[in-house]
Amino acid sequence: MLGLLRQRHTLQSPQSAHILIDGQAYLSFCSNDYLGLANHPRLIAALQQSAAQYGVGSGAAHLVSGHTQLHQQLEGALAQFVNLPAALLFSTGYMANLGIVQALVSKGDTVFADKLNHASLNDAMLLSRATVKRYRHRDTVQLARLLEQTGSGRKLIVTDAVFSMDGDIAPLPDLLTLCEQHDAWLLVDDAHGFGVLGEQGRGSLSHFRIASSRIIYMATLGKAAGVFGAFVAAEQVVIDTLINHARSYIYTTASPPALAGAVLESLQLIVEGDEQRAHLQLLIAQLRNGLRGLPWALLPSDTAIQPLLIGENQAAANLAVALRERGIWLSAIRPPTVPAGTARLRITLSAAHSAADVQRLLETLDELAR
Ligand SMILES: *Cc1c(COP(=O)(O)O)cnc(C)c1O
For ligand 1, what atom is nearest to the CA of residue 192? Predict the structure, then answer.
């Protein structure tokens, strides 16, 4: 038994720090709801009001008749929020990545990718039919060498901003410098930075204070933003190219307008969320300090994603089961999601957690370590 079989469990409560699964109450450390907005009363009210005004289904693709005023308004607000000229909504982050890469590069072009990028970026590269060159995790020296060896065609560097299974941050300023030196574009997937990093949660570009017409910024709206969907922000010509060539944008039904209404409210909450972000930072420090004495290594991460490296698949699975028996819901992440031999418990913290919640996790892990 490899301990690799994937199984689902049924949630019987809203997404939150405290959840109900299969009739049992758990303290959960495995959602991406970093600001605790998924069940926020203001988002619920915004969704209800938008549905009352615009109905439920969009009924058509954006380019046919599904693009409502709420979608339009949200695209403007998102572009402004991340300080880029234009934005475009996609139904999901997975589809956004497929659409962006496929629309911008093809045969004869080259995509340069961090080895630990999200699966959606990997799939997108394959679908684009561009040449793929993967560099070691965060290794800009190897990336520079690969760029030097590449001749004609368009060049696109793609990277997670915050790596989804490791929690560390890509060296975006260095990547941007390489883009300038080699006339390349930079696709930044900020699924785990949007709403959390940077001034007022404006994301990883704000975190590093970088801006460039070479950047194609993508973020999801189902994680810190607490709703659903994704968007791309970039120069207007890039957005126009996506509208005309991104197949996962063109050939699919627009997401329900009420979701756009909810995200508009979520942007407000994110801007007002300095207290939540400060609380999240305190929890991260509490967890890292508290885990120091344990036999398992914590990966070097400053973000809400705090992976505890276990190693063997079965050991990670056993630990997750033992935690569940003690009322704590955590997922073991195993290959192929992460490299073989690096099975881990991916602890994610949320502003919805209290210091007492984190203390309970620490005490339980301590008990299991002995
Ligand atoms: C979650 C995630 C996505 C996919 O976004 P969805 O909206 O869930 O489809 C893409 N990239 C990264 C890094 C992610 O973590």
Answer: 15
